[in-house]
Amino acid sequence: MSPAFEDGGRVPSKYTCDGDDVNPELRFSDVPGDSASLVVIIDDPKSPSGNWLHWSVWNIDPRLHLIEEDGLPKGVVEGETDFSEIGYGGPCPSYGEHEYRFMVFALDVVLDLPRGTQRHILDRAMEGHILASATMQAKYQRVKKEPRVAKVKVNVLVH
Predict the structure, then answer these.
(1) Which of 6, 22, 128, 130 would bridge with 70, disulfide CB 3.0–4.6 Å?
(2) Given this model, what pLDDT does residue 68 score?
(3) CATH architecture of the domain with residue range 9-141
(4) Interior angle at CA 120, CA 19 and CA 76, nearest 5
(5) DSSP assignment string, 106-130
(6) 56, 40 in Cβ contact below 8 A?
(7) Measured between alpha carbons, how far is residue 126 from residues 4, 13, 78, 87, 152 in Å?
């Protein structure tokens, strides 16, 4: 869950390319006691470009139960997004409303993957090691701003 928005709600612009583009606070509960690590993946499965990855982070200590807003716990590793960058890249749909998945996976291992690992490699490394998972969804649509219209003062002289 996130205190920033509800499951099925809207992602506040602060966490998107239209705002500060920082990760929202994420909280985890009911983590299996035998979990060795957690993985968080945020994606847009219905992106016109295919399933678009916005963030992947792994080796989260399962005892933490929290990723702070605009923060990372010690010892975690971030992967490469589909923006070809490492770290969080918030929702930024080119058009229309998109639905984003915020997923957490409890694993029975700590992953031996380097920073910048791509999603397909992360997915393969997780196979057979998932103890539990949860998904939260939220929507976002960019608001197009109307162009500013300059106000012009006109003085008319009548004779």
Answers:
(1) 22
(2) 97
(3) Alpha-Beta Complex (3.90)
(4) 60
(5) EESS-----TT--HHHHHHHHTT-E
(6) yes
(7) 28, 31, 15, 19, 62
Amino acid at 53: L
Residue type at position 19: G
Length of the chain: 159
Distances (CA, A) of 143 to 23, 24, 52: 20, 20, 20
d(CA 73, CA 60) in angstroms, rounded, equals 7
Name the token pair of 112.
């031996």
**Phi and psi, residue 124, nearest 5°:** -65, -40
pLDDT at 144 over 90: no
How far is the C-alpha of 72 from the C-alpha of 127, rounded, in Å? 24
Domain residue limits, the chain: 9-141
C-alpha–C-alpha distance, residues 111 and 93, integer Å = 31
> Residue 155 — very low, low, confident or very high, per pLDDT cuts 50/70/90?
low
3-state secondary structure of 23: coil
**CA separation for the pair 10, 90 (Å, rounded):** 13
